[in-house]
Amino acid sequence: MVSHGTEAPGRAARFMVAQDARWIADALQSTQRHRSGSGWLPLVLNGHSARIVYEGSAALLSPDPNVGVPPLAALLEDRFANVIARARHAGKLLDDTKKSYAQLREELGAFYAAHRQEFSGNAVRLARWLESDLGLFSAPGGRILGSTITGQFRLGVSSEAGLADLGPRLFEVAQEQGGALAVLSAAAGDTTPPLSTFDYAALGRMVGKDRKAAKYLAGRYDPVMSFETKLLLLMVEGEVNTTDVLLPLTESGHEEAVFRARVVSTFHALRAVEEVLASAPSAQASGTGRVRALLSEPSTRQMVDDARARRVRNRCMHYEIRGGSVVLDPHQPMFGIVEALWPERSFEELNADVRAINARLAEALRLWRN
Predict the structure, then answer these.
(1) What does the pLDDT look like over 316-349, one tens digit per residue?
(2) What is d(CA 82, CA 93) in angstroms, rounded to the nearest whole number?
(3) What are phi and psi of 228, to 5 degrees?
(4) Where does the chain show beta strands of DSSP type E?
(5) Is 138:209 a contact under the CB 8 Å cutoff?
(6) Which of 3, 38, 177, 211 has the highest CB neighbour number within 10 Å of its CB?
(7) Contact 243, 265 (CB under 8 A)
């Protein structure tokens, strides 16, 4: 049955909010069973959690009576206003229309300066070159999933915050977001608590390594790029690897939620890398050429430039469906939104294509060295 009524978009929006909240809550709770990753995995998943908390809250707080849920909205406003605000900040990773590329680099530079000040100058003078100020955490094979400097940025925690407080702040953020997600998970009427069902054993043992940021990044990406630009690319690489390595382990039973996460992350990772390369026309390292070639391929250009791809991305990012232009089908994955916005593609086809593009981008970033 195809739905044209004014109530159908609201039901679809609330259902997707609940789907995404239950998926990320499951993904976060399940990290506690992964011995080597229990401290790191919540950090690399925080971007998705922040997006869902912020966008899901916006839907439940909507003045449209077909979308908003006043009893749940009241809980969000009264108990989780601060975490929603922080989630909005953290969610700006690759899509902050109010912040320029130069401002983003400057902000990452401030986080690096804070880490360098915290960890440098503690050893005897002759050994200071050995001091580390960057923590990297990786999946087997050296696939970087995140770093301490960029992880602090993703948390929405100020660069002025003491690094000794990061552990407690991460716990606080997780606790607050968990409470908000419990509210959002009831958006479709199911009030049972989200479950913990995922098994990350296939991920293997995660490894944490301490490095000196200047030395490590000197050999990464392209030599003409600034240190701050390389920090941005390190953050993007972690996001892309998380999408490629970690999200498939959470897909069973949550295919539509993972699809939305995959589309949003891949779309903005491609845009970020493209902006970096556009700002560095003199970058000519062999790895740079490999990334430029990937970005120029028709399938990649379609993902970035095609208005239909952008409309699908918007529906994956923002839950409320306005204007009545999308004809919904509750029997199709994601209510037939993909097929309605991009008639030539199916949900399954687009999911496979986006997954393939993200995997190739992950490989290109891994090999991107001077």
Answers:
(1) 999 999 877 788 999 999 999 999 999 999 999 9
(2) 19
(3) -65, -35
(4) 134-139, 143-147, 207-211
(5) yes
(6) 177
(7) yes
Cα-based angle 259, 69, 65 (whole degrees, multiple of 5): 100
Torsion of CA 226, 170, 37, 263, to 10 degrees: -60
**Rounded-to-integer distance, Cα 20 and Cα 124, Å:** 50
Cα–Cα distance between 235 and 134 in angstroms, integer? 12
What average pLDDT score do residues 153-182 get?
A: 72
> d(Cα 222, Cα 224) in Å, to the nearest integer?
6
- Extract the tokens encoding 332: 């199709």
pLDDT in tens, 220-257: 999 999 999 999 999 999 999 999 999 999 999 999 99
Q: Contact at 8 Å (CB) between 24 and 45?
A: yes
Residue 96 structure tokens: 């902050």
Say how far apart CA 27 and CA 196 lie, in whole Å: 7
Q: How far is CA 195 from the centre of its chain?
A: 22
Contact 313/270 with Cβ under 8 angstroms?
Answer: no
DSSP SS3 for 13: helix
Residue 339 CA from chain centroid, whole number: 25
d(CA 296, CA 152): 32
How far, in Å, CA of 362 to CA of 367, rounded?
A: 9
Q: What is the pLDDT of residues 103-136, one digit of tens each?
A: 778 788 777 887 677 655 443 343 333 457 888 9
* R_g of the chain computed on alpha carbons: 21
Whole-model pTM: value is: 0.90
Rounded to whole angstroms, how far apart are CA atoms 225 and 256? 37
Least confident residue range of 13-22, 78-87, 228-237, 338-347? 78-87
Report whether 202 contacts 28 (CB < 8 A). no
Side-by-side strand order, sheet with 134-139: 143-147, 134-139, 207-211
